[in-house]
Amino acid sequence: MRSVLGFLAGILAFTMSALAVDAGLNEAEIAPRESGVQLVRYADEQRPLYNYRWELVREGNRVTVTGRGDNDKKGPERVEWAETSMMEIAPGGLRTLVWTKESSGAEQESWRMKYDWAAHKVVYAYRDRASGKSEEKTLTFGPKAYASDAMYFFLRGFPFEKGEGAKVEGEFVLTEGKVMSGVVIHRGEEQIKTAFGPLDAYKLEFKPGGLLGAFAPRMFIWYTKSMPHLFVRFDGKDDGVMKPRTTNELVHYSPADRIKPVKPN
């Protein structure tokens, strides 16, 4: 079962834009306490594919996000998971220190990633508790890298003020124990329909490097135009490249006054 916060693995696409300017991340605005509910659905269906609830606590420069999800099934096919991301706010953006996840029910798996940003390394550990299969390895990355489990949060600091074509590029450390290059590009502004009403939003496109970029589907992420630039929607493939396109939408958020729907004329 793929982590919702780490959904990027295996599905990103990469194309460089000649007009884009690599601007780097600003500091993401994080409240002392936040919570949200996200639903993943196939684009043409209403029934959730995955349900996900998360809570965030900030104490100074330390941020902890805990989440619980399920595959919206009952009986022997039901899978539930819990994950925790311990992060810090540092120059260059929000970065993960330790990420853990455990699934239960029809799936009995555990994951852990522990970062050493000074050494540009992360230790990845995986175990299938049912079969006993396990894996541990150390991944290395360059000086400009991002942890994918924190992506929805650190992209609040995208340089939206630079306008369409601005980009942030680097390496993305995936929760499946892989590192790949990629770029996030500002694709403009849109007014979109959401669970909170119509919102003015910024539209970003995420594309990876390498051979995968030539075949992967396009992915878009929307953030509120108003501060603190909250994630509200993803359009891409949360259920695998061979499955239909999915949407991942924020349907509940607290503090609610941080989301500002467009007022009717």
Describe the structure.
The chain is mainly beta and 265 residues long. It has one domain. It has one helix and 16 strands. The chain has one helix spanning 151-154; strands spanning 21-22, 33-42, 48-59, 62-70, 79-90, 93-105, 109-116, 121-128, 134-140, 145-147, 166-174, 178-194, 197-208, 219-224, 231-236, 246-254. The protein has a 16-stranded mixed sheet that branches. It is globular, with a radius of gyration of 18 Å. The model is unreliable at 1-21 (pLDDT under 50).
Low-confidence stretches: 1-21
Question: How many helix segments?
Answer: 1
Amino- and carboxy-terminal Cα gap: 44 Å
Average pLDDT reading? 89
In sequence order, what are the helices and strands, one letter per element? EEEEEEEEEEHEEEEEE
Main sheet properties = 16 strands, mixed
Radius of gyration: 18 Å
